Amino acid sequence: MNVNEIMEIIVQCNFKIMDKRKIIIQLIQQDLKHNQLLSGLEKLHLTTEAHPLEIMDVVAEMMGIPTGSASEEWMKIYISFLEEAGQYAITSRGERLLPLAEKCYNLLLACAEIERRVESMGEGK
After folding, report:
1. CA distance linking residue 16 with residue 118, whole number of Å
2. Residue 114 and residue 99: Cα distance in Å, rounded?
3. Is 85 buried (19+), middle (13-18) or exposed (0-12) by CB count in 10 A?
4. How far from chain centre, in Å, is Cα 18?
5. Residue 61 burial (CB < 10 Å; 0-12/13-18/19+)?
6. Cα 74 to Cα 78: distance, rounded to the nearest angstrom
7. Using CA atoms, how far apart are residues 14 and 118, in angstroms rounded to an integer?
8. What does the pLDDT read at residue 1?
9. Range list of H helices, 1-125
10. Average pLDDT of 19-46?
């Protein structure tokens, strides 16, 4: 394998990582929008319990957190952003929520990384 072939593999891997990040952010963005709509229905005293999408579980899994293993702190971060989304104007495509979704993703990623490091430190004892 020559240097050019190795570089091509690295470039392809970077695209896959970037695509995954973008997909996760888009999922978060759509969950924020969905939560905005559900909150609006609740304000009208309409029941929304039968409409969970459970996107948080999908996001966690895509970020390398096994199903059902997301920490309480990680979930609190996610839920805090769902609640914050209610302060934004509702738009047809949720475009105003993109910066909020990106911030959410970055904090979730940092939380997961900190938890992995703490866990690995505990295993090294």
Report:
1. 27
2. 23
3. buried
4. 14
5. middle
6. 6
7. 27
8. 60
9. 3-43, 55-62, 72-85, 98-123
10. 89
| Contact of 32 with 91, CB cutoff 8 Å | no
Residue 68, token pair as written in the block: 């059902």
Neighbour-count burial for 15-48, b at 16+ CB within 10 Å, e otherwise: eeeeeebeebbebbbbbbbbbbebeeeeeeeeee
Burial of residue 111, with CB atoms counted within 10 A of its CB: 0-12 exposed, 13-18 middle, 19 or more buried: buried
CA 22 to chain CA centroid, nearest Å: 10
For the segment 52-105, what is each residue's pLDDT rounded down to a tens digit?
Answer: 678 999 999 999 998 889 999 999 999 999 999 999 988 888 899 999 999 999
Per-residue CA distances from 7 to 10, 21, 60, 112 (Å): 5, 21, 30, 29
Q: pTM, whole model, 2 decimals?
A: 0.80
Tell me the percentage of the chain whose pLDDT exceeds 90: 50
CB-CB contact of 74 with 61 (8 Å):
no
> Which DSSP symbol is given to 69?
-
Residue 71: HSE in the Cβ half-sphere, 13 Å Cα cutoff? 16
